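Here is one chain, start to finish.
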Amino acid sequence: MTLVNQLPVLFRESAFNTQIDRLLDDAIGTISGWSSTWEPNCNVYEDENGFCVQIALPGMEVNDIDVHVEDNTLRVKGERKDEASEGRTWYTREFLQGPFACSFRLPSYVDGHTSTASYKQGILTISFPKREEAKPRRIMIEGQ
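Its structure:
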């Protein structure tokens, strides 16, 4: 069995296109000095009650993060401000700066209107409960 058959319904939009876009953006950015948005690392999982998206945004302020659900799509965007770097010589700089964005298509059986979000220890967690009709239920068998 391949991993593709096991992927959940909740997925990152256009993952392949995003990789191609990032490759082209990196090439153009290197030549022109232009920079584009970056995508933070994410975890997505499902349990019996719903779906959850976790996004790693260490060092971010809650006011710098924007979360929207529209047309069954979760969109998260914001901007990490560039640290003052006067007098610094960077040898490694992997904390990406500037605007970021990511989006996820939600399955039809989650309730986007009652979603919740929290930000703790640099992790943004957005939870989407399943609609009652989508949750597993036990059917009792009547006996004589």
